[in-house]
Amino acid sequence: MANILIVDDDSMFCRTVDALFKRMGHNCDNSSSIVAGLEKSAATFFDVILLDVGLPDGNGLNEIQNFSNSLSS
Asked: How many whole angstroms separate alpha carbon 36 and alpha carbon 20?
């Protein structure tokens, strides 16, 4: 079972993917912004982070390094 964080501002996408992963037996959490996602990833270990490119507070591509640091910590 994996801990998965979905960082996306599209609530329909988050609900759909969250439900799919939960049916597969994984734990899921969601954030709708980079800041909220980084806060969650700092507080909880995630095996996988799905990071959207276009978010209200920035471009997910520019934040990959910050999220990858939380995966390796």
From this structure: 22
